[in-house]
């Protein structure tokens, strides 16, 4: 009876093991994403070499362990060798095995050192396109220094991003292929880290410092990354989306962005008196893009770090105080200065906040009011 129970138990264990193998095989396709730069391909190749060596060693070790467990088990009457440590292998294995392990490590490390130098050493004898990457709590700012263009990139809220929640942004980092690009990394507040696996590198963005990396995309496509440094409450809401396009398409995109920049500047500089409805509509769009990450779409915030704007004494109080905190920020808190926005954008946001939700103040703030308050 006991023997039958043992056989049944073994069969059940075998079936369970085979089921686990099938589940593992189903996930065999999960690996690093396909590289989009030559240096990234070299990193990928080192990873695959490491995995091949590790797999080979795993098979060797498990084979020895399984052989030993089966043939040296007590039920076969095997008697442990009490003098194994005095044999030739027993004496020299302490030297041979570490030497083999060190040889494997050096094989991997020599290749890795070469690639690491290539990643960190930015080419100095060639013309590079410069992109300044600034991390904020919690969004990214990309300055195309050679083209005079600035792009703000924020995550797309749930419901608008479909299956790409926390993986999609409103404005992508558009880059040309077959062009050496230098990335200058810094931060406006706390430590962040720019990481897109297909580009080959992860680089910290540190306040007060500017560090550099580089890459050259060799194919078109959309590549997704994220902030890889725990930077606060909404660290997860800092995705990065790189869109690689041909140099011709990139130039078209640059021309379009420059035209939009000129049009926005002309609109903000005009002496037009805006209606409350126009400012409210424009302010709603800007608020949901720039402010909702902290204060929420419904204006209820996340106290105590991010106070509610609905019913806020600042928002429903004197306009001068509201303008002051938006333009200058509030020291000691996460509220930063938004003075970089143009007068029309700030006027629209303040008008929206003072008339949205339960804040029915009826106030309208014009761009000229913002200009005077600066």
Describe the protein's architecture and organization.
The protein is an alpha+beta fold. The protein folds into 3 domains: 33-71 and 89-121, no CATH class; 129-264, Sandwich (Immunoglobulin-like); 270-373, Cytochrome Bc1 Complex, Chain D, domain 2 (Orthogonal Bundle). Helix content is 45%, strand content 16%. It contains 10 helices and 10 strands. The protein has helices at residues 2-26, 38-71, 88-120, 247-269, 276-290, 292-295, 313-316, 319-328, 343-355, 367-373, and strands at residues 129-136, 139-144, 149-153, 173-176, 180-187, 192-196, 201-205, 211-216, 221-227, 239-245. The strands form 2 sheets. A 5-stranded mixed β-sheet has the order 3-2-1-5-8. A 5-stranded mixed β-sheet has the order 4-10-9-6-7. The N and C termini lie far apart (91 Å). Mean pLDDT is 86; it is low at 1-5 and 21-27.
CATH superfamily of the largest domain: Cupredoxins -  blue copper proteins
Number of domains: 3
CATH architecture of the largest domain: Sandwich
User: Would you tell me the overall average pLDDT?
Assistant: 86
Radius of gyration: 30 Å
Strand content: 15-25%
Order of strands in the sheet with the most strands?
3-2-1-5-8
The major beta sheet can be summarized as: 5 strands, mixed
How many helical elements? 10
How far apart are the termini?
91 Å
CATH class of the largest domain: Mainly Beta
Class by alpha and beta content: alpha+beta
Order of helices and strands: HHHEEEEEEEEEEHHHHHHH
What's the β-strand tally?
A: 10
Low-confidence stretches: 1-5, 21-27
Overall helicity: 40-55%
- What shape does the CA trace take? elongated
CATH topology of the largest domain: Immunoglobulin-like
């Amino acid at each position: 009876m006991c023997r039958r129970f043992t056989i049944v138990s073994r069969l059940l264990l075998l079936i369970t093991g085979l089921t686990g193998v099938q589940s593992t095989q189903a996930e065999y396709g999960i690996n690093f994403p396909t590289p989009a730069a030559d240096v990234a391909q070299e990193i990928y190749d080192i990873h695959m070499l490491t995995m091949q060596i590790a797999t080979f060693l795993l098979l060797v070790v498990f084979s020895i362990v399984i052989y030993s467990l089966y043939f040296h088990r007590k039920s076969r009457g095997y008697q442990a060798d009490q003098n194994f440590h005095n044999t030739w292998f027993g004496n020299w294995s302490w030297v041979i095995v570490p030497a083999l392990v060190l040889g494997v490590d050096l094989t991997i490390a020599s290749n890795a050192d070469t690639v690491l130098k290539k990643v960190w050493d930015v080419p100095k004898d060639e013309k590079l396109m410069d992109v300044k990457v600034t991390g904020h709590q919690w969004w990214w700012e990309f300055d195309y220094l050679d083209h005079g263009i600035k792009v703000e990139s924020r995550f797309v809220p749930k419901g608008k991003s479909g299956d790409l929640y926390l993986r999609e942004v409103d404005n992508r980092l558009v880059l040309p292929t077959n062009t050496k690009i230098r990335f200058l990394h810094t931060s406006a507040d706390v430590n962040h880290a720019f990481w897109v696996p297909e580009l080959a590198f992860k680089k910290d963005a540190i306040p007060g410092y500017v560090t550099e990396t580089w890459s050259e995309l060799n194919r078109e496509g959309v590549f997704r990354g994220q902030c890889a440094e725990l930077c606060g409450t909404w660290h997860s809401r800092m995705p990065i989306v790189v869109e690689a396009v041909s140099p011709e398409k990139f130039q078209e995109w640059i021309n379009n962005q420059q035209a939009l920049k000129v049009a926005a500047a002309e609109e903000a500089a005009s002496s037009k008196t805006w209606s409350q409805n126009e400012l409210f509509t424009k302010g709603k769009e800007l608020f949901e893009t720039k402010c909702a990450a902290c204060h929420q779409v419904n204006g209820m915030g996340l106290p105590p770090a991010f106070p509610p704007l609905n019913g806020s004494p600042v928002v429903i109080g004197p306009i001068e105080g509201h303008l002051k905190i938006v333009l200058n920020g509030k020291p000691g808190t996460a509220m930063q200065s938004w003075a970089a926005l143009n007068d029309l954008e700030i006027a629209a946001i303040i008008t929206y906040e003072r008339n949205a939700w339960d804040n029915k103040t009826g106030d309208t703030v014009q761009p000229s009011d913002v200009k005077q308050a600066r």
